[in-house]
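Q: Convert this sequence to structure tokens.
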Amino acid sequence: MSELPEFYFRIRENGAAVFRVDTENRMRRIEMDQIAVVNVKNGEIKPQGGRTLSPGDLAAIRDWLAQRQALVARRDTDDILRTVDHLNQTAHWAQTRASEAQLDQVTDALLLAMHDLRSVLVKKRSERPSREPARDQAG
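A:
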């Protein structure tokens, strides 16, 4: 049997419950003792059961947290790129296969959603600093 990790992270909606994994007991059973809860969105680590987390515990949890935040960010971007694919497929469907009844069913919802998205993207783009290098005024 391969060696088990020291910690197990039970993923939940906004983070994870952190368990210490113990196999060094009389029965050689796997025991998991919850030691903390982690919030991926704000980085908060809350010890559980009146525990004080050791520096090693905190380092392992922070390492997991950084990896999880990076994974969630990659997934978010991938989801958006899939949405672009879906929009392209939707345009093809609307142009080639959709019946009038199907178009009547989805057109208003799609137009409103696309208008809302376009408004947000245009606003966000205008708020970003220009990507062009500043020109020297002395020229």
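Strands lie at 7-12, 15-22, 31-39, 45-47.
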